[in-house]
Write a structure and sequence with these properties.
alpha/beta; 310 residues; 46% helix
């Protein structure tokens, strides 16, 4: 998606979306409609409304659970009394995530491989029939020089992992999730979906696409499955080399404190946006887009090009 088309679409639709929230729109149009929820056979607990996520008693699958945001989400949700399944390409870091913890499980999964997703989905549903929450967290980021012809392997890898992976895994599990009580799908996008870095063009485009896909998924599943988007700012993780200690990035623990505080709200927000991410998320709505875009990209060119582009 080009920068022009993304901005144009947002200028058309964002005022509508911000003027009337999805929840208000649904309530206005479908006032009085009953939104039923499926009863989970393995549990007698009463289902929460489809506009929220219960804080405990879930069985949660998190991709990219071997490090960074995925690992911390897994541990924090497990601390709240949830069964958590982490998945990723390598078993060793997943085992570190679940070490010495109860009700945590690890599976290898390459989200780039459609056949692996199909096999994994059947296996995880069979072994964990109570699975009711999917968190599509796995993602990669590569810096790029768009000013000349280049090998597109990195661009294609980012689209496959960041966009097709969540779409494929959601597709493989959605029928099962619809049979569970309190079903939830969570997609992790990025502040760069809303104000892109020019040296991470494909990454930003993939996350903008995930944002758009999440809006569509939420619309089609409203009243049945809660759909949430986590929008991180620049966080100190190993998403790119050296990022875990990069000055000016948000410490991971601080980010997670903010995220879990928002998940605890009732009803759960459709978008998990900590204040540090609001700088990017709301830049266009608040008339700051051109300024933020210029400052972000001047900073990227000045401080990142030589040191971190790989």
């Amino acid at each position: 998606m080009s920068y022009i088309s993304l901005t144009t679409l947002r200028r058309v639709f964002l005022p509508i979306r911000t003027a009337v929230t999805a929840a208000t729109l649904s309530a206005t149009i479908f006032a009085g409609a009953a939104h039923g929820s499926e009863t989970q056979n393995s549990s007698a607990r009463q289902a929460e409304p489809a506009d929220t996520m219960q804080s405990t008693g879930n069985t949660i699958l998190i991709t990219g659970g071997g490090s960074g945001i995925g690992r911390e989400l897994a541990r924090r949700f497990n601390d709240l009394g949830n069964t958590v399944i982490v998945a990723g390409r390598s078993m060793a870091p997943l085992q570190e995530t679940i070490a010495d913890r109860q009700n945590m499980h690890a599976y290898t999964l390459d989200v780039d491989d459609p056949a692996a997703i199909s096999t994994f989905s059947q296996q995880v549903v069979k072994q964990h029939p109570g699975l009711n929450v999917l968190i599509n967290n796995a993602g990669i980021m590569r810096f790029e020089d768009l000013s000349k012809a280049r090998d597109l392997d990195d661009a294609e890898a980012q689209i496959t992992t960041n966009l097709l992976g969540p779409i494929r895994l959601t597709n493989a599990l959605i029928n099962h999730l619809m049979t569970r009580a309190n079903p939830v799908v969570v997609n992790v996008s990025s502040g760069l979906a809303f104000v892109p870095r020019s040296d991470a063009g494909t990454y930003g485009a993939s996350k903008a696409a995930i944002h758009s896909y999440t809006l569509s998924l939420r619309e089609q599943l409203k009243g049945q499955v809660k759909v949430i988007e986590i929008i991180p700012p620049a966080v100190q993780t190993e998403l790119t080399p050296g990022q875990s200690s990069r000055e000016g990035y948000m410490p991971l623990d601080d980010f997670m404190d903010g995220v879990m505080g928002l998940f605890a709200q009732q009803p759960t927000p459709d978008e998990i946006v900590v204040p540090q991410a609001g700088f990017l998320r709301w830049a266009e709505r608040e008339g700051r887009f051109d300024d933020v875009f210029g400052r972000l990209n001047a900073h990227a060119i000045r401080n990142e090009a030589a040191a971190t582009v790989s």
